[in-house]
Write a structure and sequence with these properties.
The chain has 299 residues and is α/β, with parallel strands linked by helices. The protein is built from nine helices and ten strands. The chain folds into two domains: 17-212 and 288-295, 3-Layer(aba) Sandwich (Rossmann fold); 214-281, no CATH class. It has helices at 2-27, 39-51, 70-82, 93-97, 109-126, 213-223, 259-268, 281-285, 291-295, and strands at residues 31-34, 59-63, 87-90, 131-135, 140-144, 152-154, 171-174, 202-205, 238-239, 252-253. Helix 1 (2-27) packs across helix 2 and helix 6 packs antiparallel against helix 7.
Length: 299
């Protein structure tokens, strides 16, 4: 009975997410989907493949800070080629070249996130900064100096992941600078979604908003989604629960080597009093949340 209820819940969540993805594709022409390589955005990518019958007609964008764990980049490139994804990569080249980063000792963690993530995202979305686009003929990335601006951005954020994300809507407006006014969020009642916004409005679309961490892992198990190995114990009693930049992300104590074992950990309450992003040091610097960064355009 419990398994049947879980399946029904996953079916309902899947159906809602597919609906949101199709609504976004119907409503917004300058549309892109962020892919962080983590479990949530990879589930979102899987749902997009379902929504559009195995094909993803929406460009994928990854913001590469230059400090991602190497396995993340290898995983990204492998599946982008295998699934024929239109992958765009953005980066704050100037900050990296000038060593204006936390690992170089010149910025705080929050300032580094703002530079390498928020600023890189904003200027890559606008087309002001170069983009690297995967060429499927050669398998290499080609630099493009100018690109069309994207004003609709699909993101794999969940309301339960951390406090500021619980204030989002399925269709959440930003201003032309990608800045977020938390108090000016439209109501979304009885599955009535506003997709008609004033010109110049940037829209963040959140198809996974009502999913939980447990839902994500149960869906990964049901669908047999290929998830990066960093989420599993490799024999040292540690694994990542949330992925980010290597200098600012720590693994958790866990011996889970399979999806089923991760699900059991979540159900047993092992992490019931430990925030999912507790290993992300920039969250601690922002007072335990990400609202400061998210107001300025962070994912």
């Amino acid at each position: 009975m419990e398994e049947k209820t879980a399946m029904n819940q996953l079916d309902a969540l899947e159906s809602q997410s597919v609906y949101i993805l199709r609504e976004a594709y119907r409503s917004f022409k300058q549309l892109v989907m962020l892919w962080s390589i983590g479990k949530d955005s990879t589930v979102l990518l899987w749902l997009a493949r379902k929504a559009f019958l195995g094909h993803v007609p929406i460009s994928l964008m990854h913001i590469d800070t230059g400090y991602k764990i190497p396995e993340m980049i290898e995983y990204r490139n492998r599946f982008a080629r295998q699934w024929k994804l239109n992958l765009i990569v953005g980066q704050n080249i100037r900050a990296l070249e000038n060593k204006q980063t936390f690992p170089d000792g010149n910025l705080t963690r929050l300032q580094c996130c703002a530079a390498l993530k928020s600023e890189a995202l904003k200027h890559t979305l606008s087309g002001e900064w170069p983009r690297w686009v995967l060429n499927h003929t050669t398998g290499q990335f080609v630099q493009h100096e100018k690109g069309e601006p994207f004003t609709g951005v699909i993101v794999g954020a969940r309301a339960d992941e951390e406090g500021s994300r619980s204030k989002e809507r399925y269709f959440s407006p930003r201003d032309m600078h990608s800045e977020w006014d938390v108090a000016e969020q439209p109501p979304e009642l009885w599955n009535q979604f506003n997709t008609d916004f004033a010109p110049g409005t940037h829209i963040r679309i959140h198809p996974l908003l009502d999913w939980t961490e447990l839902n994500i892992w149960e869906y990964i198990e049901r669908e047999n989604i290929p998830i990066i190995s960093l989420y599993f114990d490799q024999g040292n009693g540690k694994r990542y629960r949330s992925l980010g930049c290597a200098p600012c992300t720590s693994p958790v104590e866990s011996t889970a080597r399979t999806v089923a074992e991760i699900i059991e950990e979540l159900k047993s309450g092992k992490f019931s009093n430990i925030a999912e992003r507790s290993g992300r040091q920039q969250d601690a610097e922002d007072g335990g949340g990400l609202e400061t960064l998210r107001r300025e355009g962070y994912m």
